[in-house]
Design goal:
Rossmann fold; 8 helices; globular; Fungal_lipase-type; AB_hydrolase_fold; Sec_MonoDiacylglyc_Lipase; Lipase
Amino acid sequence: MKKLKRYQYERYAVLCSLAYQRVFKQTRYGFAPNGQRVIANRFGKPMIRVLWGRESNEVIVVIKGSHNLPDWLLNLMLFKVKVSKRLNYRIHAGYARQIYQESSPWYNHDQLGMSVYQRLLNVLTPLAQSGKRFTFTGHSSGGAIACVLADVIETRYPKSVKRVVTFGQPAVGGVDFKRQFKLKHRTYRICCDLDIVTYLPPIPLYYQHVGKMLWLYNGRIYENTPTVIRLLRSLASWLLRPFSYHLMSKYIRNKDFFDER
């Protein structure tokens, strides 16, 4: 597995943050004037943005996390369902519902009655056939959905997915998903400190994560730290944090509060 470079991390993180905005000017971030396709959810809100540039071979698929009460409620559907006839595994029912929800038309030429997945496939197919490669990224439930959609696209178009990068992602499947997931060596799951969502759903073994975990904690990056150890370290740090403010290093770090004389 290749390392995730800093500029890649920053770019995907910024795009995931901007995904929550209704309007996104892709040319400000190096994409082509015609290099954006928006896929809306059932409420007519942007859910997925497909972005590409003139010269780069990379197409970035950015998936927004839960951003309204109905989507948050879908996170509570903790049972699993089969996601596709092509794939022999089951995933979180709420995320499957989001993938196969009806997508409201965003452009005048968009057809009615298409699911989010069908509309995404229509956008990605000509790009895949032209030799483009895809990076899937998303925050929170968007990251979980990114893993599933990337695996589905990789199954349909082998070697078309370059990488998957998720931020604060909950688990999406169980042992069968982990075993059959084809992008485990191209997936980076980024967790920040004690992000409680990264421990969800709260059913050990029934749900399991995939890919390489990068834990941003205490000024360092830890790789593939076991969940239990990550939780214990975070809790210990949280409990001891009031005492850390007594250290001289904290006083030295705050020297900038004082004016220069």
